[in-house]
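ugh ok fine here u go
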Amino acid sequence: MLTEVRSLVATLNELRQYDKDRLRYLTSRFDREGDVFSIDERDHVVGDGRLAKGLLSRTDLHNFTDPELYATRNQLSGAAAYAERWEPARDAIRGVTRRKESQAYANQVADSFVDYVRSSVGMTIDVTSVLKGASGAAIAQLFVGSQGREVSRYVARSVAANLPLMHSSVLRPKWSRSSAVRAQRTLSAELKAQLAAIVDERISGHREEDVLQAMVDRPSGGQRQQCIDALQVSLLASFGVPGVAMSWMLAELHKQPTLARVMRDEASSCTSAGESLGRPIFGHLINEALRMHPPAWLLTRIIGQDTTLSRELVARQSSVVNLIIYRIHRQPSMWQKPNTFLLDRWNAGSPLVRGAFIPFGSGPRVCSGAQLGTVQLHAFLWSYLTHFDTDEVCLDSAPKVESLLEPTCLTGRLRSR
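structure:
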């Protein structure tokens, strides 16, 4: 009994250190123990790209994503059930976004982005916060049309309520009476009710030109719950990610004025956001920002069957493997000068080493909006470079972890160009 108590206390102490500064804790452990280690018998950490790629390729077969913010009696069973429930919704999103023209998407998103950001012109702003809001509004309008701005506010509140639970490594039960749990459940229910009302309106005959309409109009017929699930998961998963990626790009451009001038000249030579999709330098800047500063810096998988992680370590069924994308993208064995922001490394295309670059994940559960997300980043980058600039910049580009990997500080006075 005493041994078990000591083990529990040791684990809790590790979790406190981890929650206090996650990147510093993980970097210290990687430096001491290599690219695979265990926090305890249930939680394992992987910073090796090839191993991570292999694990991701077996998602929904030998391991599963975990959708739960709360402690459950059988985490593995819940994750497997979620995988089965989410697959139809995932297919719905993939089916409609692939049919849309990328240039049309880019131009639509650019217009929404500019409209949102323009309201902050003349103010000193937290750049990351404004870009998160702008990207959330633009994506919501892409999915639900005229109701996008209102929906994005519901999404923002729901995401904010998730954060206190996501910041703690100690899971709470859903029945907890804590204020954080009550707020999260209330705001999540409000978002779902809002989306359900919009879906019901579309099924009843109201039409708009957006992603939801394409889902409803699919030849197989858009099932009500499938559409609601697809909207909720997609909007929550994408909220803030493009905005944070944009803030990292602007931070790097601020540090490299020559590159910033080259990018503005290239943007000015494009007549629209859609045209920027064909300019390689835009893709190189986006890829390098996602490599050095992946907003989705960590992915988790629940192990469905015993899995060998190294000669010394086997992840047992129901244990959790944390894949540290931030570490993988900076591996010296996979990248030359991994801690230097270099666009030229992308001149030859994608890296040849398997698992070296996985900002959207990989395998069966690769981000369903990966292609759409790349289009959005082109549109946001082009829009900012051609319409706005930031003066009196205060930048601390050290990374901090909220739910996403963000610059510690990026503020400035926004002006129109």
